[in-house]
Amino acid sequence: MNSELTAMLKRRGFRVIAANPRDRLFFPQERFNNFDDEIYELLKKYSFRIFMRDLIKNKKSFTCADLLKYVSRECVEIYLQFLLERKIIEKIKDDQFRLKKKSVFSFGETLEWFVAQIFEKEFSSKAMWGVRLKGGKSGGDYDVLASFENRIAYVEVKSSPPANVEEKEIIAFLKRAEELSPSLAIFLEDTQLRMKDKIVPFFENALRKKGLPIERLRDETFSIGNRVYITNSKGDIAANLAFCIRHHLTSGCLF
């Protein structure tokens, strides 16, 4: 657990009671050399993330055919072989597999780990995922918290498609962000679909009384001022996060 980040949270009146729950990741605690780096590189691929989302849904028993809805057979076979070689999945019979780790119920926690790793590896920023804080009134669950340039970044990470996101989740995100008061808050949806169709209207409804406009910055990345951002994984998650951070750091007036 990062002492600098926990100290920054403590000054805001929050205490970290849990963070970095590796038992909820789809890969085991015991790992091969460079294993985390291998998984990190694979998770950069949208096809692998979609593949893993479907695999975890069918974790007790699945075949190659069960994972072909969004990913090509060639990719599925490559990914299955990778997971087999590293003992993440095992064969039940000829063409049937299962996930070995039984404590995994969704892809969400692994996606949070991946986003925290982006902050660590790409931005040289200490980060925690799956964070539970004590001291707030709006619910103490924060997907990813990171420290950069003596600032706190809070990222809400959604692994499910926009159709499964409800407006109350947007309201909860905004309440948590308002209470924590990080320098930067990002709502990240792991999808390549349009954010303007459903997610942005949810934010517009939630912010109507405050009269805060939502501005499209580029593609599917939007901002509310220069502290709250909405983005997705179209193109590249790391690049979209970097864009939000850069906009936050450089959009203030010098004179």
Q: Which features characterize this protein?
A:
255 residues, Trna Endonuclease, Chain: A, domain 1, 2 domains, two-stranded antiparallel sheet, 8 helices, alpha+beta, 38% helix, globular, Arc Repressor Mutant, subunit A
Protein model, in words:
- By secondary structure, the protein is α+β, with helices and mostly antiparallel strands.
- The protein has 2 domains: 3-18 and 107-250, Trna Endonuclease, Chain: A, domain 1; 26-99, Orthogonal Bundle (Arc Repressor Mutant, subunit A).
- 38% of the residues lie in helices and 22% in strands.
- The chain has 8 helices and 10 strands.
- Helix 6 (167-180) crosses helix 7 (199-207).
- The longest helix is centred in the middle third of the chain and has 16 residues, at 108-123.
- It is globular.
- The model has no long low-confidence stretch (mean pLDDT 93).
In short:
This protein is of the alpha+beta class and 255 residues long. The chain has helices spanning 3-11, 35-43, 46-57, 73-85, 108-123, 167-180, 199-207, 237-250; strands spanning 15-18, 89-93, 96-99, 127-134, 141-148, 151-158, 184-189, 215-218, 221-224, 228-232. The protein contains eight helices and ten strands.
Distance between the termini: 39 Å
Question: What would you call the shape?
Answer: globular
Task: Give the DSSP E fraction (strand runs of 2 or more residues).
Answer: 15-25%
Poorly predicted spans: none
Give me the number of helical elements.
Answer: 8
* Count of the domains: 2
Order of helices and strands: HEHHHEEHEEEHEHEEEH
How would a crystallographer describe the biggest sheet? Answer: 8 strands, mixed
Counted beta strands:
10
> Rounded to an integer, what's the Rg over CA atoms?
19 Å
What is the CATH topology of the largest domain? Answer: Trna Endonuclease, Chain: A, domain 1
Strand numbers in spatial order across the main sheet: 1-4-5-6-7-10-9-8
Query: What structural category do the secondary elements indicate?
Result: alpha+beta
- Would you tell me the overall average pLDDT? 93
- Give me the CATH architecture of the largest domain, please: 3-Layer(aba) Sandwich
The first-level CATH class name of the largest domain: Alpha Beta
Approximate helicity band? 25-40%
